[in-house]
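Reply to dn_fold:

You asked what the input looked like. This is it:
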Amino acid sequence: MTSLQPAQSKSEIMAMPSWLRRPIGKASEISTVQRIIKQRQIHTICEEGRCPNRGECYAQKTATFLLMGPTCTRSCAFCQVDKGHAPMPLDLEEPQKVAEAVQLLGLRYVVLTSVARDDLSDQGAGHFVKTMETIRQLNSDTQIEVLTPDFWGGAGAGEEGQRQRITMIATAKPACFNHNIETVRRLTSPVRRGAKYDRSLRVLAIVKEIDPTIPTKSGLMLGHGETVEEVEEAMADLRAVGCDRLTIGQYMRPSLEHLPVQKYWTPEEFEQLGNLASQMGFTHVRSAPLVRSSYHAGEETNLKSEV
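and this is what came back:
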């Protein structure tokens, strides 16, 4: 791994490299998904997070649904999603709306994620479960992956409350339980405000304690100034709690109000890290600049390592 280069200085102005640019996609294909989403007044992380792959995914009639509104109660310094301490009340019809969208799009594999909702008594765990149940009522063959927050905060904050909320979702048997640690231990506080590195590892550990048969997954976002050694340590920490699957992608600054990019890692460096992750025992690895948590998630059921 010695060929990987150190992070660049904050003072350097870096143009986005060519490997991070991709075509938007055909407007007609993109509009099909957007129309279904907007008609039901639901949200996708594809749009709210300005995902660079949304054109490709929309063209394939896939999307990752963002539950519980577009406003997050956390204020992570890397994330495009709107922040606020007073998000709107839950839309009790959202599970039905999402299930209908899944049916219309013909999805065989769907990813459910959400904003953090520290204002809710159960952090939104019950809403995840209700949405999963409703999707299955209309789409019995559709597999459901969840990408959850850490379920820590609000009423019942603490380890026991976190365990209860995770248990609710794990008992509903998702096809995969994903929770991203996002960055290395040293950078967690400035990058993920309100989150804790070990608390996120605990989410994945609890899932395996509840049901070892549920595949767990996490993601790393490079470009905040992490070292190769720190990335390796993070991967080892994930394996130590039984994490099965891993995504590694490049952080891309959404706006000048967000953290600056410290380094653009090259495709070759991502390939090296992906190979290392496979050697460490992850059953499925996606490691490339434009990889995101839910990118081609349904293909992970094949459990092949791809870098």
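Residues 125-138 form the longest helix (14 residues).
Hope that clears it up.
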